[in-house]
Design goal:
This protein is an alpha/beta fold. It contains eight helices and ten strands. It has a single domain (2-235), classed as Rossmann fold. The N and C termini lie close together (4 Å). 43% of the residues are buried. Bound molecules: 2-phosphoglycolic acid (PGA).
Length: 261
């Protein structure tokens, strides 16, 4: 894994945007895997800024989001469809037909999940998958115990996740208890994965994911099996990494290799 440590949230957001921009310049019809949550908001703001100020072009891009709450329609204000429109898609020039997000309301869920997997394959796979990490170590909604070979499917949310996500819901509004999520196996097939972690609340779980054993109890640890997994953490989220000094040394001296894994 490549571990990049930036001073703060803004630095993480800019650095992540640099990876997305480099991909789009190299491959204008790239397939981007996108995530929701608070962590990627700064990245999305920076991509919007580069689109408006610098002409970063998304017209050939196809996107696949990681997950959606089960039972929420695309126009529900807490749905991830809505989140993505408001925080990214309404402000860049990605064509609506190129946007893919799992359906939370499909009548035949198993078929809808299989179709999602098939569509990712038809587009040649995801070039760069953006990821956050949950306080229980999840990537997407792959809660502890998720098979590391799992595919897009329904998943029961863990109590920590429901608690963490309650902040986005109004008082009296029920947080969904289930989601449709890409699997760990789906994510591991992306050509590159970019995991963003910010704030001291993520420090302990990030260290487990990066330096602990590969385990389905911390599904982000599966990224250790990926040949091109990059973690961008801010100072606080990196604070429990035992080998932090080494990671910083690598970033200082290895630029000539074109990136380590
Ligand atoms: P957050 O969520 O970015 O809101 O912390 C991360 C996640 O649950 O994947």
């Amino acid at each position: 894994m490549r571990i990049i440590i930036e001073k703060d949230y803004a630095g993480v957001s800019r650095r992540a945007a640099d990876f997305v921009e480099a991909l789009l310049r190299r491959k204008p019809n790239a397939v981007l895997g996108l995530a929701t949550g608070s962590t990627p908001l700064g990245l999305y703001r920076e991509l919007i800024r580069r689109h408006k100020d610098e002409g970063l072009d998304f017209s050939g891009v196809t996107t696949f989001n990681l997950d959606e709450y089960y039972g929420l329609a695309p126009d529900h204000p807490q749905s991830y469809h809505h989140f993505m429109r408001v925080n990214l898609f309404d402000h860049i020039n990605v064509p609506g037909d190129n946007i893919n997000i799992p359906s939370g309301t499909a009548k035949n869920i198993a078929k809808s999940c299989d179709d999602y997997e098939r569509k990712i394959r038809e587009f040649g796979g995801i070039d760069l998958q953006i990821l956050g990490i949950g306080s229980d170590g999840h990537i997407a909604f792959n809660e502890p115990g998720s098979s590391l070979a799992s595919r897009t499917r329904p998943k029961t949310l863990a109590p920590e996740t429901i608690r963490d996500n309650a902040r986005f819901f109004g008082e009296g509004e029920e947080v969904p208890k289930f989601a449709i999520t890409m699997g760990v196996g789906t994510i591991l097939e992306s050509a590159a994965c970019l995991l963003l972690a910010t704030g001291k609340g993520k420090a302990r779980i990030l260290a487990e994911a990066v330096e602990g054993p590969v385990t389905s109890q911390v599904t982000a640890s599966a990224l250790q099996l990926h040949p091109h997994a990059i973690v961008i953490a801010d100072d606080e989220a990196a604070s429990c990494l035992k080998r932090r000094a080494y990671y910083e040394h690598v970033e200082r001296v290895s630029s000539g290799f074109g990136g380590e894994s």
